[in-house]
Amino acid sequence: MTIHDRDLEAAMASLFTTAPPSLAPGVLAAVGLADRYARIESPIGPLAVAWNGIGVSSVDVADDDASFEASHRARTGRRAISAERLPAALDRAIRRRLAGDRRVRIDLDLRSHTSFERDVWDKALEIPRGEVRPYGWIAAEIGRPRAVRAVGTALGHNPVPLIVPCHRVVRSDGTIGQYSLGGSHNKRTILAAEGLDPDRLESDARTGIRFVGSDTTGVVCLPSCHHARRITAAHRVPFRSMAGAIAAGYRPCRACRSGSGAIAA
Amino acid sequence: MDTDSQLIAALGRDLDGSFEALVLAHQDRLYSIALRMLGNTRDAEEAAQDALVRAYRALAGYPPQRILELRLRPWLATIVLNLCRSRIGRRAAGGRPPLSLDAAEPGTLEPPTDEHSGPAATAIRRDASRAWADLLLTLPPAYRSAVVLRHVDGLSYPELANALDRPEGTVKAQVHRGLALLRTAFEAAERREREEMTA
């Protein structure tokens, strides 16, 4: 049986097909013109995580798709397109980061943010899981000791909370302070999930204690430093100021760098 | 053609603002070309996506005048075709089987909605389409690409000559030779089927 040219050509034309729905969003995300997003579990419930070819671009509480998409667009100017799940490598990296691994690399898309903001967020990444630092500590560490208020503002603008752990930065008087991801209640929940007791932290702070020294080592730490938490009651020496600790012959801890932002204060 | 020239003008003015329109206008044809060249849906999606990403990066580096002179249809076809060729080359070098004919086709998995039109009729159409796709994959890549661009994608001969960077006479000959090979393969397959039925 022979087949006519016309039928052959028609058979070929019938092989034209439509692209799968994931193709266009994949392209737009790869070139940074739109972001994909999916949900992850967190101590404060499901969060939406958006990413593109450059990196993770936002993390937010996600009551519903429409409100996340609207807030993402308002913040970045880009569309967020829902995806079934995070890319496997990114999902693994975020889990490890939330579990406290600070070395795991997570690319971030922080275009349109200032270098000051990035410096603040980079510094927040140095705070270990289960510890906190005051705003003034960040300001001193990035070489802008007087910019304490601006540090607070930058942390409030952190587009990728939890991945950049701005919840580990508290007020200089020791109170937990505000949190962009749904308010201070969420900040307490996350800190508690990381092994810190926020109520204890605040009640200690109310007594005026800002530093804790060990009379065996002569080192003075911030109260949540893992070294400070190992000091037994018998050797624990509380201080209200770094100046007082230094006058008593103590030196600041090299791990929590308790001297940062505290010497002048 | 006219929508493409509007698109090109928009791309020249504002690449980021109009690139999505390019993706939506060309994704089906780039995916179809890749699927018919490579034979499986996952490779085809990757190749088509990669082609559009490369197109964006190229456009981002072009001065506006160069964008305005582009012939979008053959230009995009060349990009996806080159990616398909290098994938086919890698497969051959890696010793992997050249074709995976068992990959599911999009749209073939939905059950027939209308009992009256008959599952059999759908199956015949689907099998015919699958059979043609498989036959196409048996062609040497040079003939396969000529037939795919001309008769699956529907490029004109001038566009085809542009996409393949060959004289029009040469690409016409490649298309005709490709169709002739396809006819021979089709007839051989039919003969085999008849013999199996009578055996």
Q: Helical amount among residues of chain B, as a percent range?
A: over 70%
Identify the CATH class of the largest domain in chain B: Mainly Alpha
Order of helices and strands of chain B: HHHHHHHHH
Between the first and last Cα atoms of chain A, what is the distance in angstroms? Answer: 96 Å
Sequence of secondary-structure elements of chain A: HHEEEHEHHEHHEHHEEEHE
Whole-number total of structural domains of chain B:
2
**What is CATH's topology name of the largest domain in chain A?**
Arc Repressor Mutant, subunit A
- Classify the beta-strand content of chain A into a percent band: 5-15%
CATH C-level name of the largest domain in chain A: Mainly Alpha
Number of domains of chain A: 3
The CATH topology of the largest domain in chain B: Rna Polymerase Sigma Factor, Chain: A
How confident overall, as mean pLDDT of chain B? 85
What overall form of chain A do the CA principal axes indicate?
Answer: elongated
CATH superfamily of the largest domain in chain B: RNA polymerase sigma factor, region 2, helix turn helix motif
Explain this structure.
The complex is a heterodimer of chains A (265) and B (199). Chain A has three domains: 26-98, Methylated DNA-protein cysteine methyltransferase domain (Double Stranded RNA Binding Domain); 113-206, Winged helix-like DNA-binding domain superfamily/Winged helix DNA-binding domain (Arc Repressor Mutant, subunit A); 207-265, DNA Methylphosphotriester Repair Domain (3-Layer(aba) Sandwich). In chain A, α6 (135-141) packs across α7 (148-156). Chain A has helices spanning 5-13, 23-30, 65-76, 88-98, 115-124, 135-141, 148-156, 184-193, 198-206, 242-247; strands at 34-40, 47-51, 56-61, 79-82, 133-134, 169-170, 211-214, 219-221, 236-239, 251-252. The model of chain A has no long low-confidence stretch (mean pLDDT 92). The radius of gyration of chain A is 25 Å and the shape is elongated. In chain A, the strands form three sheets. Chain A has a four-stranded mixed beta sheet, with helices on both faces. Chain A has 265 residues and is an alpha/beta fold. Chain B is mainly α. Chain B has two domains: 1-96, Rna Polymerase Sigma Factor, Chain: A (Orthogonal Bundle); 120-199, Orthogonal Bundle (Arc Repressor Mutant, subunit A), CATH 1.10.10. In chain B, 78% of the residues lie in helices and 0% in strands. In chain B, α1 (2-13) packs across α2, α2 crosses α7 (141-152) and α7 (141-152) packs across α9 (168-198). Chain B is elongated. Classes of the chains: A alpha/beta (265), B mainly alpha (199). The A-B interface holds A 1-3, 5, 8-9, 11-20, 22-24, 26-28, 30-31, 33-34 and B 16, 19-20, 23-24, 27-32, 35-36, 41, 45, 48-49, 52-53, 56-57, 105-107, 128-129, 132-133, 136, 147-148, 151-154, 179, 182-183, 186-187, 190.
